[in-house]
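Hey L., structure's done. Input below.
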Amino acid sequence: MLRNAIGFAVTLLAPLVLSVPSQAVEPDEIAELRLTGMCGGCDLVQADLARMDLSDSHLIGADLRGADLRGANLSNANLEGANLEGADLTGANLTGAMLNDASLRGAVLDGANLENATLHNTNLAAASMENLRLSGASIFNSEVGIGGSEIVELEH
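Output:
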């Protein structure tokens, strides 16, 4: 009887004692991006890239929908054709970034630096852009909200 009780207790407790907290395995795309700075067409949906140095990265056509890019350094990054819909780019450095044909629909760009960036045919509909810096940016055929609710098309 005691033997059965011990066996039963071991059966119940073994998974708890032997379980080791699992660590999230880093997706191949993020590992490739960190290693090479290149990840064209990557699936980075909802990736946590906050405060990551992605300067000079090639993210052409990458799917970054809902990604956390708060405080990330994307200076001189090539994001042509990238999908950044709903991404959080609060305080991100996008100085000199290429955002041609990219979609930032519903993205949060509050406090982001887009100085000297290129935004041609960029979708910025419903994006939050408080305290956005655009000095020297090349903006063509892209709608940028100014003053909250009014949409102004800027062409340079």
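The two ends are 86 Å apart (CA to CA). The chain has one domain: 37-156.

-- N.
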